[in-house]
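Batch job 17 of 40 flagged for manual review because the log was empty.
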Amino acid sequence: MMTTATDISLKFGVINADGSNRHEKINTQAVLVNELFALKKKLGDVPFLSISELGKKSAQAFIDQLYHCGSDGHVEKLAGGSSDHIVTSWPETFSLESVHFSNVAKYSMKVLVRPESDTESDLRLGFASLYFPHKCSKERKKKITDLLGKAALDVRDEVNAIVFNGDFNTPSKDLAAYVEDWDVTVKLALNGETTTAKGGKGDNVLFSEELRLDFKDVHTSYELLSHHPFRVDLK
């Protein structure tokens, strides 16, 4: 990884809009978008945000509204059904330098750059949002996870740190085992916390060893979407 004199403080929000299993109150696009903004507010100050399992119109409506709030963002269509869009947003202090997209592993790896002063190097972040397919074998999940490891390796020399967040559809115990042989060392923010109403533990944040976990909060009491929104702060 590149080194920097800048102290890194990064705050991430992760939301799965679960297009196939929402509360009956979430019955229109406008209601959904408003609820997503309410969730973002509930999570607190999360300049970096990932929302998976959105339809095209809902995803674009959220991004359009986000721009008015002073953030930049991106919408991508993943391979699969009409609800396989993912929203990634980041603070306007960062610019998007490059993006690599995989429809196999369903992720988007971005290199974001925040210019610093003349005496400090720019802060460069590898930031990936993802949504893994859930109906596949452990062997298939391992192969898909290895694609993430390759994506991390591809940007390692260009950035100061790397973060993956989203729905891995993989329990943390299995995920930890899958990433052990990556060429880039990563840690898991969640280790066994329940992230869905049915007791699932597949949502997570992975971060490279240059960072440390400072705070995490899973909103397990939330009921309008089947996945619990959560926040992870890294330094």
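Reviewer: the log was empty due to a logging misconfiguration, but the result itself is present. The radius of gyration is 17 Å. Unflagging and moving on to job 18.
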